Amino acid sequence: MKDTELLYRCKPIVWSELPYKDALGLRVTKAIEAMDYYRERSNSMNKLSDAYAEMVAKYTDSRNARDWNTKLIEELR
Questions:
Q1: Are 47 and 21 in contact (CB under 8 A)?
Q2: How far apart are CA 31 and CA 33, in angstroms?
């Protein structure tokens, strides 16, 4: 299981009191922000380094979290 704070770059308490659909929407927004963060960080790294590979993995995990939460929102419609 992936660490929530790495996927969204915030603590889950942020959406804990929100209605389910709103919490999913916030997760999508936070995942996009995390993706932007990881992309920016990786831009200045050596593409062959382990740190770059780690940033790419975190970016991918956040993208997957965004996609998963988006699908859950669509199921509510």
A1: no
A2: 5
Which residues contact residue 43 at a Cβ distance below 8 angstroms, ignoring those fewer than 6 apart? none
Rounded to whole angstroms, the Cα distance separating 26 from 35 reads 14
Q: What is the pLDDT of residues 59-73, one digit of tens each?
A: 999 999 999 999 999
Q: What distance in Å separates the CA atoms of residue 72 and residue 36, rounded to the nearest whole number?
A: 22
Q: Is 22 exposed, middle or buried (0-12, 13-18, 19+ CB in 10 A)?
A: exposed
List all residues 6 or more positions away from 73 whose beta carbon is below 8 Å from its beta carbon.
21, 24, 25, 28
pLDDT (tens digit, 9 = 90+) per residue, 23-66? 999 999 999 999 999 999 999 999 999 999 999 999 999 999 99
CB atoms under 10 Å from CB of 50, counted, come to 9
